[in-house]
Amino acid sequence: MRLAKLHSTTLAIGFLAFGTVAALAQDDPAQVLFTNCAVFDGKATELTDAQNVLVTGNLIEAIGDASLTAEGATTVDCDGRTLMPGLIEGHAHLMLMGPSLPAMEANSTWEDFAIHGTRMSEMYLMQGFTTVRDAGGANAGLQRAINSGAIIGPRVYPSAAFIGTRGGHADFANFTSPVGESTNMGRLNMAQEADSVADVHKFGRNNFRMGASQLKYMQSGGAVSAFDPWQLLAGSQAEIEAVVQVANEYGSYVMAHSYRKEAIMTALNAGVRSIEHGFMFDCEIAELMKEKDAYITTNLTAFDPGLLEIPAVKNVASSLRKATSASAAFVNYIPNMKKCPVKRAFQTDCVGDVPSCSKQIAYEKYLNADFFDPHTALVVMTSTGGELVALSGDFMNPYPDGKLGVIEAGAYADILLVDGNPLEDFSVLGTSDKWFDGPERPDSPETIRVIMKDGVFYKNTLN
Ligand SMILES: [Zn+2]
User: For the chain, which domains are there?
Assistant: First the structure.
């Protein structure tokens, strides 16, 4: 019932914002005036009190004091609450419902993926995320459905199919599947095996054709996947350079799943702009990242003190062995990140059912403020995330008309209104200090009172 209600609200207001009634939207865009707000702009260390924020159509038009008014605008009285940018998820897998990679390969049809992606998208938006960069699995279809108002969700930056080597972290094929045999995940362009420069060219270009705004390459392995040691150094120098070359043809960039220092340095030197996980991060890597103007996304749940107790890890001997050695090797990750800070974005990386991913998001939010501090966490989840997704460039950025992750004139009107001050109490953004063993999460945190995306209200509990 809630979905239906939100759905019709979206359509009703969405006509103006999405330009479905084009003449009306251009001649007379709807205006919303937020009054008496404490503004977090995505960067500053303190809130700016007593601000008015004017939204016209889908953009923020102006920010000012009480003298900023707009005749005929819908007024929302913040009553001193915090107005801030919508959150940005830098690394999610909206389409991957789990429970395991082999299960998705063997048993999942396109309907399963579509239904899961639809539910994940709604969950993400209602948890306060107005933008999600999908790190593998989602093609253009999900984004199109959201942008058209057919379903509810955040802005989506898809990577289309993971690109990775045979036996690497994007190899979803059954154990006995012969080399070269087509796979379920390959047919749906969710994961592609690339073992040559020619393969990389073919699948990279096909990804952009299928709606990718950037490419995702799998350099390292993982702890719970089937065939790949986490220490894997997949892909030759030439293959990684080929991924970057294809991305550059489209004015975009590459995100690389990289663990070992060798992998990270190779990726950065080849021109990769977004390091995913980067678990062997150190100060030498930080130097090279600065030189290359690169970003890192961190899934801090990998540093959960109880990681080795998680059933998916504990109950599979090979996974437990891999996770144990990984945990030992990654011990300096957080200290190094504090010692040599770089531009960092948020990452949850959940593969699983919607209630589990909702718990993981709440815990990942918590860890960002707990391992670092609330201001650092807020910047990571807003303005830095906005810079990161904009690397998709002038031709491939699906949302090129304004900045994301900031409250400033000309930025997209992606706005949260929250009770309290998240710089002092981060829990107002809907955190949990427990992961999978925590309580069920609410559909949307009570303290997030307003969720606006692209000038459209998706939640407003002030009235
Ligand atoms: Zn991932």
Answer: 8-85+407-460 (2.30.40.10), 87-396 (3.20.20.140)
